[in-house]
Each structure stands twice: as structure tokens, then as C-alpha cells.
Amino acid sequence: MSQNPVIEARGLRYRYDDGTLALAGVDFRLHAGETVALLGPNGSGKTTFVMMLNGLISGEGEISVCGMRLERRNLTAIRHRIGMVFQDSDEQLFMPTVLEDVAFGPLNQGIEREQSLKAARTALEQVGVADAAHKAPYHLSAGEKRRVALAGVLVMNPEILVLDEPTTYLDPPGQRELIHLLKGLPQAKILVTHDSSFAQALGQRAVFFEKGRVAGEGPVGEIIRRFEWDSRPS
After folding, report:
1. What DSSP state is assigned to residue 185?
2. Count of C-beta atoms within a 10 Å radius of residue 99
3. How far lies 105's CA from each of 65, 73, 162, in Å?
4. Are residues 126 and 154 in contact, defined by beta-carbon separation less than 8 angstroms?
5. Which of 74-78, 83-87, 192-196 has the lowest mean pLDDT?
6. How many other CB atoms are found less than 10 A from the CB of residue 218?
7. Comparing C-alpha atoms, which of 23, 85, 83 is closest to residue 49?
């Protein structure tokens, strides 16, 4: 494992407008190629934490991503390094066709249309849904939507993937396909999940959140046993 983490967070604190303390001093490291599962009950701070990592929300503490401090001048570069796949894929799919959806990111960065479309086709092939390129996203299954949302992230060549409850709406075959797909991707990964079997299939380490703090971290199986954590709906 590399000495320098691709993400390092120190003393993260965040309080919502209603006074709720969502993060109460979180320290975290992620190394290149590592997959870490974030476990814990609803409201424990997991999603707030990953939203802070690429500046979607801002609070107290220090964050560095690929050697860059998270601050306004570095925000665009950091968001290029971290690719986020949200829990509800429909939030990321909004263009008339799958191909246009995946090409949207490169086009938005000023890359020529033909080059963007070529990159989009490559990303769709990478996730195994190239034959859906000209379909409307709303015609896809939940598993296909998740793959297209992932393609829309991969087309930007991120160094880190953050997936929020990636097994939501997926049936067991869809979950197995997603596990196989993610195992083949080289990026460092953060998995926010309630699914212990998914966490154990992919994670090299687990971090357990409780009341806005890191209550424990270590090998996935050990953390699941320690906190008596089992698969449950989000």
C-alpha cells in the first residue's frame, strides 16, 4: 500500500441548519487501490462525510485529495479526481439517450463532440451496457441504470470512486454483476452501504460510523462481528 493516501481527512465536523451535529470529529485515510466500506446506522454521518470529500457541503476540518487541499481554488480539480455514484441512479441520468448521458461530462469540459462520444462508448463497453447506448435511460432496468451512472463517472477518468448505497434496487443477480464489475476497476473506492455481504465481497477495510464519529475500523468481517452488523435495508 502506498505511503501517501489519496484521501486524508482530519477533524471533520459538520452541523446542519437545524442544529443536528452530523460529524463530530472524523479522521479518515484512503490509499490508492484500496476499497473501504463505510458502515453504520441511518443518520450516523456516512453520507454527510462523503459529501464533504468533494466539497458538496463544507464544514470544519481539513481534507486533502491526491495531495491537494480541499479549498475553493482546487475544487474543480478535486471533483475530477473523485467520481460519485449516487444511491438513486435517476438523479444522474437526465439526457434523452444513454450515450448522450455518458458523454455529457466530457462535453461539459469542452472536449470535442466526436471525442466525447467515443469516450462514452468506451465507458459503456467497460461496464457492459454498450448495447443500450441509444436507449432512453428510463427504459433500463435498475442494474442497467446503475451501470450507466457508473459509466458517466468512469468516462471522466477519476482516481477515486465513491458509491452511496450501490446495491439499492438491485436484485441478487444485479448485485453479483456489480460486485464483479467493481472488482475489475483499479480505482480506490469508498462504499457507503448497509449490505454486509456486499461490504465483505469488496472491502479490504471497514469504517463504522456512529453518531457522527468513527466508532471502529478494521477488517470488514471483524467490524461486522464487533458491531453485530448485518444486511438490512437502508
Report:
1. -
2. 22
3. 20, 20, 17
4. yes
5. 83-87
6. 12
7. 23
